[in-house]
Amino acid sequence: MSHPHIGNSVAHPWSGTLASGVTTLSRSDVERIAALAHLELTESETDRFTRQLGEILSYFDRLQQIDTTGVPATTHPVTSAPVMRADNRRPSMPRDEALANAPDSCGDGLFRVPRVIG
Amino acid sequence: MTASSIQTIADIRTAMAEGLTAVDICAQYLERIAAHDGPIHAFTHVAKEQALERAESIDRRGAEDPDLPLAGVPVAVKDNICTRGLPTTASSRILEGFVAPYDATVIDRLTKAGAVVIGKTNCDEFAMGSTTEHSVSGPTHNPWDLERVPGGSSGGSAAAVAARLSPIAVGSDTGGSIRQPAAFCGIVGLKPTYGRVSRYGLLAFASSLDQIGPFALTVSDAATLLQAIAGQDSCDATSAVEAVPAFDAALREPVPNPTIGVPWQILEDGVDPDVHTAFSAAIDVLRGQGAKIVDVPLPHAGYAVPTYYVVAPAEASSNLARYDGVRYAYRAPVDAAGADLTSMYDRTRDTGFGDEVKRRIMLGTYTLSAGYYDAYYLKAQQVRTLIRRDYDTAFERVDAIAMPTTPTPAFGLGERSDDPLQLYMGDVFTASANLTGLPAISLPCGYGASGLPVGLQLTGRAFDEETLLRLGAGYERDAPWWRDTPPAAAIRG
Fold this sequence. Notes:
The structure holds 2 protein chains of 2 kinds. Chain A is mainly alpha-helical. Helices cover 28% and strands 3% of the residues of chain A. Chain A is built from 3 helices and 2 strands, in the order αααββ. A two-stranded antiparallel ribbon of chain A has the order 1-2. By secondary structure, chain B is of the alpha/beta class. Chain B has a domain of 252 residues: Amidase signature (AS) domain (Amidase signature (AS) enzymes, Alpha-Beta Complex). Chain B contains 16 helices and 11 strands. Chains A and B meet through helix 1 and helix 2 of A and helix 10, helix 11, helix 12, helix 13 and helix 14 of B.
């Protein structure tokens, strides 16, 4: 699955604005987010989420009150370097077990999905 | 000690020393669940056959086997932790029918310690929520008042222990999901330091915040359970190399002349008067035991909720991308002739996820998207640094920081289900420990006027669960609230 592009600073045509200090969210914004997140929303879901997500995003605006000039970002609370295990070969999960939970798989050890092209 | 009066790990040890078998203990808890879990709905799956088989194998141990610390002790497991051969659904429709092909590291360690997994417990879907109402199998009810929520997201684990349907349980805590339900259900819940317990086999929600931890009736039992599951694991690169101390031994020694900080300023607004009263009384108990109580400013702690609700959904939107109808369990029915892969993804995710999960996926997708990343995600990560610095400064002069676990006692089922923002505000005292990675424990500290439990939260330095457990054990000796049993419990204490 693809994931929305992260960290790109190119302006996006959302209707939301932070410059004015008040974030607004339109129905078409929610439709666009849902498409990026691979969610096929119903009409009533789109209405409900437009209202709820708008309220939540407005609440986030209070973070803008804090001066964070020069403050480094904390991405992770880990203070020590991650410990890697030795790169030794070991048995992996048997293929039939890995496929056992798939909603649709073929006898020859493959996940089956609807057509991708055309 | 008769089987029907057992409550704690200590009780189980006594009973087994007196001749009861692991099978007797297991059968006793299975009977309690069968008779009393109906109106509570703490369990989503009771592992009757596997548990009895496992108990038999404990009883068959040869005399040459060393004593196992949890021999024959039933443990309830939150349904977002993988248990080989048992359903693991995180209370989501999208994982209905999923049977884990391997055990999480915590399950592996519990098994080696002699514990018996008795069942899987209800939770908010993918651990997102604080009521256990966002579950495909319906809500869990609070054993103190069946019309109220048990808290969440690990509400099933908390309710199971409070109702004496399991002596101990494991849950996961991303923004308070162990401590808040422990507070609402009147039991002990501990979020260990980030990295103290392996996350291997925990269905990921927010990987920089998630941590597995214990539920128990007593501090001693929580310590025994933490001992069994803690420690570095080669399957989780973020699990910490720090040595795990002997918690049981430490409990016998009180902390000499502890200094405990209280951020009185952030308790001024929005805290229920009953919670304030019970909390202040608990602080008096600690003071009476020789603790020095000092005021600590945590100037950025009030921003924990917006910071958390930017960071956690951002991570969730990425972690939950894997549920796409291809590899795990559920795929929405699609018209074979007309459907393509993308419409299968979209329909599966819309019909497989519940509202709260969809809200958070969309919030995270939005805040990580082009043009908004700096304003939301980067900003929140910077505020996260400021919150951590507040705590670092406070810990230069205190051994622990005390707060109520929650601003209110348990509220009514359905009362807040249409107001997600109001629910998020309830995480005001718990979210900081996840953002900073610090350990925090919730202890029962009395009741509000309506007879509902109130929780006392103690936060400690990184990798200093020991101090929290020692302070907790000291408090519990003078304030043994755990001896009270809720009205819907399987036994009356």
